[in-house]
Amino acid sequence: MTDSDAGNGDDALDGAQREPVSPVELFVAFTLLALQGFGGVIAIAQRVLVEQKRWLTREQFVEILSLAQVLPGPNVCNVALMIGDRFFGWRGAFAALGGMMVLPMVIVLAVAALYAQYAAEPVVAGAFRGMSAVAAGLILGTALKLASALGSNPMGVRVCFLAGATVFAAVALLRLPLVLVLLVVGSLTCAFAWSRLRASDSGRNASR
Amino acid sequence: MTAADWLILLGHFLLLSLLSIGGAITVASDMHRVMVDQMGLISDAQFSASIAIAQASPGPNVLFVAVMGYQAAGIPGAIAILTAIMLPSTTLALLAARWGHQRRDWLSVRSFKAGLAPLVVGLLMATGWILATSIEGWHHLLLTAVAALLVWKTRLHLLVMIGAGALAGALGWI
User: Fold this and answer.
1) Contact status, residue A132 vs residue B89, Cβ threshold 8 Å
2) What is the pLDDT of residues A95-148, one digit of tens each?
3) Helices (H), chain A
């Protein structure tokens, strides 16, 4: 994966990349995207930050998300922190994280206060089931969309597919502990990526 | 609940924060052990309702921790326990991101990022799968598949899809 900041021919990247103008804009943007994120915020974060705001390329989003996923803590909160920090330092980090958390927390506590009264209603329970089913689909669709970013991965598409499928099977089907899966598969893929990158770097230096 | 109990509980959540790789939901089983089994702060039903409420509300799913704190000790409980679960991981994430971004040209940092990228896709698929199969029955899987296809191939607004799911569920179709 190259670190060039320019987009490289992708349907979402037909225009120029942009940047937020202030921490306040970050706070508002993350509040709005958090309020649209039912059953998780990753799907809406990808759509808003990459496709609408164009603050990040699809590749940059995958990079940040992968770091956010191997570090402890809620993934979307780590993503908000890192994006905010990249644009405005710690002020941006707290603006983005605050936007993600403050208003949604007020809402979720209000729902908690109401829920106890209406949880037994079949209509309410059914609506919750329907929303959960769609939320699962949103996450799966986002995964399929982000898979296209792997086209520029130095390991090649086949190895990426194999690694992704292995992780899916280990976590979703075998229900193995996440730490174990990441350590084993991650150390193999990182070592392989290292050897491929080193080979391509030395090839580039030799041709200079 | 005494002040000492609170210190023990918050201390435990500070520790769990550093162990919560993959999100706070991955250490939820240990929260259950402490809050329900050991301290009896909330009931089993309150525990699972906390997760369902956070999933059905907008915002990050980690807010289920705030709901548990609210059920145990009102709004101060919600704020205290959410802060405890967020503070260590947030600090670590910020430091690690800065360290990595300053060294983004290093071969080791580039290898780390490239090596982990396909794992992210696999993990997201796993999360979607676990969420979809945790709902009883199979009718809803059609809804899940259609939503996945629409997100992948169209720009239909995500709230429209969530709303359609809520309506289909409320009408008793799934």
Assistant:
1) no
2) 999 999 999 999 999 988 887 677 678 888 788 788 878 878 888 998 898 888
3) 23-36, 42-46, 58-70, 75-118, 122-147, 157-168, 178-207
Q: How far apart are CA A145 and CA B49, in angstroms?
A: 32
What is the number of structural domains in chain B?
1
Q: Under a CB-based contact definition with an 8 Å cutoff, are residues A51 and A10 in contact? A: no
Determine the longest span between alpha carbons in chain A, in angstroms.
72
A75 shares contact with chain B (CB less than 8 Å): yes
Taking CA A21 as the corner, what is the angle to CA B154 and CA B151, rounded to the nearest 5 degrees? Answer: 10
Question: Is residue B170 situated within a structural domain?
Answer: no
Which residues from chain A sit within 8 angstroms of residue B151, using beta carbons?
43, 137-138, 140-142, 144-145
CB B142 within 8 A of CB A133: no
CB-closest option in A77, A126, A149 to B86? A77
A162 vs A117: CA distance, rounded Å: 48
In a domain, B38, yes or no: yes
- Which residue, A125, A138, A126, A132, is CA-closest to B173? A126
Instruction: Specify if B87 maps to a domain.
Output: yes
- Contact B58/A93, CB-based, under 8 Å? no
Q: Which of B66, B92, B123 is closest, CB to CB, to A167?
A: B123
Over the stretch B144-170, which tens digit does the pLDDT of each residue have? 999 999 989 988 877 788 889 889 988
Q: Find out whether A150 and B76 touch, Cβ atoms under 8 Å.
A: no
Is the whole model's pTM more than 0.80, yes or no? no
Q: How far is CA A137 from CA A43, A62, A153, A170, in A?
A: 10, 19, 26, 20
State the virtual CA torsion across A10, B126, A140, A46 in degrees, nearest 10: -50
Burial B84-97 (b: 16+ CB within 10 A, else e): bbbebbbebbbebb
Does the distance separating the beta carbons of B141 and A132 come in below 8 Å?
no
Domain ranges of chain A: 11-147, 153-208
Q: Is residue B26 part of a domain?
A: yes
State the average pLDDT for chain B.
Answer: 86
Average pLDDT over residues A3-12: 41
Domain housing B3: 1-102
